[in-house]
Amino acid sequence: MKVTFKIWRQENRNTKGAIKEYKVDGLTEDMSFLEALDHLNELLVLKNEKVIAYEYDCREGICGQCGVFINGRAHGPHDNITTCQLHMRSFKDGDTIVVEPWRAASFPVLKDLIVDRSAFDRIMEQGGYITAKTGTAPEANAILIPKEVSDSAMDVAACIGCGACAATCKNASAALFASAKINHLNNLPQGHPEAHKRVQEMTYQMELEGFGSCSFTGACEVECPEGISITNIAEMYAKYTKAKLFG
Amino acid sequence: MAANKLVFRKTIIAGTGLFLCLFLIVHLSANWILLLPEETARELYNSYATTLRENLFIKSISYILYAFIVLHVIYALLITIHNRKAKPQKYVVNHFLQNSTWTSQNMGLIGTMILLFIVVHLANFWARVKLGMGEIIELDATGNLDVYKVTFSLFHNIYYVIFYTVLMIPLGLHLNHGLKSAFKTLGFYHKKGLRISAKVSLIYAVIISIGFGVIPFFVYLK
User: Fold this and answer.
1) What average pLDDT is seen over chain A?
2) B189, A214: Cβ pair inside 8 Å?
3) Are A105 and B86 a contacting pair at CB < 8 A?
């Protein structure tokens, strides 16, 4: 299998980047997309050229490290998967594949396809946890939680913080990420005592980081590897208003 | 803690937008008088226009309406400027139509087209009837300003007929996305309810845009 990669190359956050073209042969349909990039990097090493910098860790869709924009879509042409779950069989022999880093003012490019997503970490620092000392792992059913509640909390707890939501959003809004983290804890009894503070401080940090506002295009939920629904954003707004009125 | 700019601005957009949606229902219901035969329509329409101008309650509502249109536009502009700053660099390739609708991605552009329509519409009617600009409007047989005649002559100009009809397309698109999104922005998150609100928004947008869009043609054919 032979493809042409057009990949964003950028030395560091202070330099200007550009798209560079690479014709790559010797790929197979069974390769993952990241393996195809590994293959390209091996060819670059043999030619004594700088390898392409990109992030990855688990390569099984659970760590959220590997997000890039592939052919005009976050994480590639399929809905609700991570970049590492994308395989070369999703492309045809002879295709051109354009690979770009996440684009958002709050996600500055560090090098090539790697962006700095620590803005998400700083949002988490404002309340993506509970302050109670929990000690060792308690008995699982010591606190009774209705299944409906635990299911909805788990749906949003599934967020891996990959950044595809803000990257695909035309406004670079982090509302889906923030809402997932807020609703996860605010809907559980352990998160209740700090619920009002959490929603206000995490949304405030989202604003400080320079993310845009949500226009409900719905693009984020299509690109989210965990399929987190945008109704969570509406729920976050409801919780925010409640916190302002009664918090 | 101060109000969150991202949430506050969208709340203003949603709140004013919902009020404007209500106004459009009232406006359309009244304008359908124009579809009646001329002898009935003229008197009804002119007396309705006089009521709008002279009733104190309606007058007060009209000031709220002007304020809400201005607020809707100003906050949309502020949000757009902020959003552009949040996304300074665009993708070389972006197939956004595979994950969202064209309308949802272009509400600002569509809104600008509607603003252009409002400016022309106000110049055609509001400036003439309320501010007395342009040609003097005659009185009808019952002594009301003959606003029907203003409408009748305007919609016998084919260019205005086309302008008023074509601009109802962006209005419909804007209403469809705007109405269902306003519910979400205001914190309505019941999943089944949101599916219903999406259907209601579509039906509302179709009725309003086609409802207004047919009026110039009907009047033209009279």
Assistant:
1) 96
2) no
3) yes
pLDDT score recorded for residue A212: 97
Do A106 and A176 sit in the same domain of this protein?
no
Q: How far is CA B42 from CA A157, A209, B13, B37, in A?
A: 63, 58, 36, 8
Cα(A38)–Cα(A59) distance, integer angstroms:
13
- Mean pLDDT of all residues in A29-53: 98
Residue B88 domain-assigned (yes or no): no
Q: Give chain B's domain count.
A: 1
The pLDDT score that the predictor gives to residue A197 is 97
The minimal CB distance from B91 to the residues A100, A105, A241 is found for A100
Distance CA B54, CA A162 (A): 59
Q: Are residues A225 and A126 in the same domain?
A: yes
- Tens digits of residue pLDDT in A134-147: 888 888 788 899 99
CATH code for position B131: 1.20.1300.10
Structural domains counted in chain A: 2
Res. B1 pLDDT band, cuts 50 70 90: low
Q: How far is A66 from chain B (nearest CA, A)?
A: 18
Give the nearest chain A residue to B82 (CA atoms).
A212
What is residue A140's predicted lDDT score, i.e. its pLDDT?
A: 79
CATH number of the domain that residue A97 is part of: 3.10.20.30
Among A59-63, A187-191, A196-200, B3-7, where is mean pLDDT lowest?
B3-7
Same domain, A102 and A42: yes
Q: Measured between alpha carbons, how far is A197 from A202 in angstroms, rounded to an integer?
A: 8
- Sign of the torsion formed by the C-alpha atoms of A218, B86, B114 and B132: positive
Q: Nearest to residue A113, comparing CAs of A32, A51, A27, A58?
A: A51
pLDDT in tens, B108-132: 999 999 999 999 999 999 999 988 8
For residue B71, the enclosing domain spans 5-83+100-221
- Taking one residue from A and the other from B, the number of pairs with CB-CB distance under 8 angstroms is 144
Statement to judge: residues A49 and A66 lie in one domain? yes
Percentage of chain B exceeding pLDDT 70: 99
- pLDDT > 80? residue B3: no
| A217 and A156 share one domain | yes
- CA A215 from chain centre, in angstroms, equals 18
8 Å CB contact of A77 and B98: yes
Question: In sequence order, which residues have a C-beta less than 8 Å from that of residue B13 and are 6 or more positions away?
Answer: B72, B75, B76, B79, B182, B185
Give a yes or no: residue B95 inside a domain. no
Say yes or no: A7 and A104 in one domain: yes
pLDDT band for position A217 (50/70/90)?
Answer: very high
Contact B184 A233 (CB under 8 A): yes
Domain that holds residue A76: 3-110
Task: Judge if A152 and A101 occupy the same domain.
Answer: no
Name the DSSP letter for residue A161.
Answer: -
